[in-house]
Amino acid sequence: MPNPTLHDVARAAGVSYSTADRVLNRRGGVAEKSILRVQRAIEELGYQRDIHAANLSRRRSYDFRFYLPFGDHGFFSVLRRAVEGQVQQRLAERVQITVHDVPPLDADALAAELSRIGAGECDCVGIIGSDSAALTLAVERLEGIGIPVVTLVSDAAIDARSLYVGIDNVAAGRTAGRLLRFAHGRGSGRVLPILGKLDSRDHRDRLSGAREVLAEPGRDLHLLSPLEVLDRPEAMREKLAAALASDPQITGIYSIGAGNRALIQILRQITGPRPFVVLHELTAHSRAALEADLIDAVIDQKPDQEIALAIQAMKTIADQLPVVHPEVNPTIFLRDNLPA
Predict the structure, then answer these.
(1) 209 within 8 A of 171, measured Cβ to Cβ
(2) Separation of alpha carbons 229 and 196, rounded Å
(3) What is the tens place of the pLDDT at every residue in 66-111?
(4) What is the C-alpha to C-alpha distance for residues 265 and 234, in angstroms, rounded to an integer?
(5) What's residue 71's pLDDT?
(6) In what order do the strands lie in the sheet with 62-69?
(7) Do residues 24 and 48 touch, judged by C-beta distance below 8 A?
């Protein structure tokens, strides 16, 4: 039967429409034999529920919360604007979105915020977190009280969360490593990785991917010990300046996290040949640095697309439907292909 309706299901099961509706929406008060007949009719007819129509008829609405890092951080500012840009767009779909501030790279502080959410307060939560026992417990608690958790940018609490929406960070690191190999041709080189924090899975995965490619035979490329700067410009300025002063043979820099305004300031002060530089996320500062030929490549994870996919996935999860893992493919920006 093409596009069977719930009326068709009720007729085939020999029950009333209201009984079929109660079974479909798990509202109880239906005899077991009637439940089985409705379920059999659904299977035999190939009935598929129209979630959008059902939500309209029930005036179903969604309440989603995003817990995002605050502070002077270019990419997180871009991500926040992407979420805020969805607020008005999604009202027509009866989706309410709120943004809550949390300290960057502080999984325990994020866990504390999540612990304040009570049962029934919202339909789904989106977070950016790093590995932490406290965060895993907080996510487990939310899932246990019926509030699914979606991780963004960096996967965390893998055994507890419902879904990760973001790029493959190992592949992104391999991409950066490949760009650095191309830049060095057949010559040798010393590549300095800079990251925020090693217990941030996205940073750790990107470093791992870059290491894999740079270690491939055919090049004499040495990956130096990473600088950990906690995504803070002042830490980047201090540690990178010291590293360049102590090792003038550095030929490549891979900035995995944030604090890149300080990196760009240091590169601007170099008078001779500078290292080949790859960093992440197209922000106003990284764009200007590309245009000024201060850096060479930016790997961008397209935050607008990432947030749109995350919200769609959150709706699917809230409707208790199967979720297809959304795929976010990053873009490599050079000076020559910057968007208008």
Answers:
(1) yes
(2) 5
(3) 999 987 678 889 999 999 999 999 988 889 999 999 998 899 999 9
(4) 11
(5) 75
(6) 95-102, 62-69, 124-127, 149-152, 163-165
(7) no
| Residue whose entry in the numeric block shows the structure tokens 């963004």 | 152
- Most distant CA pair in the chain: distance in Å? 84
Tell me the two tokens of residue 275: 């290292």
At 30, the pLDDT band (50, 70, 90 cuts) reads confident
